[in-house]
Design brief:
One of its GO terms (molecular function) is oxidoreductase activity. Helix content is 35%, strand content 20%. The chain is of the alpha/beta class. Helix 8 links the parallel strand 10 (206-210) and strand 11.
């Protein structure tokens, strides 16, 4: 198979298809993933080709979906469970943090739970309440879970395949506002390691760390800053638990400044951990305090206000200006 240009959603579909083909123990399960193909059509055509016993339409019961996935994993399967929208994951939160995340340690390493939980997250689609949230910080605090989030179709394909092959539980966050963006995907290529960050654009004056939906915003900011003679380096974290702090550190040691951007609220967000760690590691290299740009500490607003809530190009560039003013 040669490289081709795919939308983010098609790349994820291709990854699921490849995983189902390569391992008969891989299962896909969730609300409307079968006949409908998922509300975003990520699982389109999979039930038709692999049957109802491997692509399973579940009841509308997130706790039951994850509880069943845990049981299947204990029996040797590799379930890929879909949570239809980010805000629907909370009925399953107890199963995830008290069972899925703890079983390996509780069994002293004798039990493995290769469960992937796919969660479309983030805003930008004009949806109603509980359909555009960014709950990543709630899961990064939980020991025993891995959490990754691709920002482009190629990473979407490879990171989902790697997550399914992993013997540990993985929360796989998909930036739903980027589902329709296209990019090159090479199924014969060599992917980066799952938990490594990547320099998406090199620069010299300031580092912007982003992940998932805000990587495109960071790249847009770098392009706009270039027109003003400023060189921004963009680092795509890709993995939020664990975080590849070494790549971020090397970047900040070169640039001396750091701005972290994410859609989730700034208060207690992933950016706070990145800021704290890099301040510890790069204290003598920093020429300005680490700044954070993100959503407000408020419930996600109605669709007409989400452009004001989400950290767009202007808000990120304002953060860049403040950091460069020191």
């Amino acid at each position: 198979m040669t490289a081709e240009k795919l939308s983010f959603s098609k790349a994820l579909n291709a990854a699921l298809r490849a995983s189902l083909e390569s391992d008969p123990k891989t299962l896909v399960m969730g609300e409307d993933v079968g006949k409908l193909g998922g509300v975003f059509r990520i699982t389109d055509g999979l039930q038709k080709d692999f049957g109802e016993e491997r692509v399973i339409d579940t009841p509308l019961a997130e706790s039951g979906i994850i509880g069943t996935a845990i049981g299947l994993a204990l029996r040797g399967y590799r379930p890929v469970a879909e949570i239809q929208f980010d805000g629907f994951v909370f009925p399953a939160y107890d199963q995830i943090v008290t069972q899925l995340a703890k079983m390996h340690a509780r069994a002293l390493g004798k039990i493995k739970l290769p469960v992937v939980i796919r969660i479309p997250y983030g805003g930008g689609i004009g949806a109603v309440e509980h359909h555009s949230e960014s709950p990543e910080a709630l899961f990064t605090h939980v020991a025993g879970l891995k959490l990754v989030t691709p920002s482009n179709p190629s990473d979407g394909y490879w990171m989902l395949r790697q997550a399914i092959e992993c013997d540990d539980p993985v929360i796989f966050l998909e930036p739903k506002g980027r589902y329709w963006e296209k990019g090159e995907v090479d199924p014969e290529g060599i992917p980066d390691a799952l938990h490594t960050a990547r320099v998406a654009r090199p620069g010299t004056d300031l580092t912007v760390v982003a992940y998932g939906p805000t990587v495109r915003t960071a790249l847009q900011a770098a392009k706009a800053a270039e027109e003003e003679g400023r060189s921004l380096e963009v680092v795509d974290l890709r993995s939020l638990s664990p975080i590849d702090f070494d790549t971020v550190q090397r970047s900040v040691e070169r640039t001396g400044r750091l701005v972290v951007v994410h859609e989730a609220p700034v208060f207690q967000g992933v950016g706070a951990e990145v800021a704290a760690r890099i301040t510890e590691r790069c204290f003598y290299h920093l020429e300005a305090p680490v700044l954070r740009v993100g959503g407000f500490h408020a419930p996600y607003p109605p669709a007409r206000l989400e452009d004001e809530y989400l950290p767009g190009l202007d808000r990120l560039l304002d953060g860049v200006d403040r950091a460069l003013a020191y």
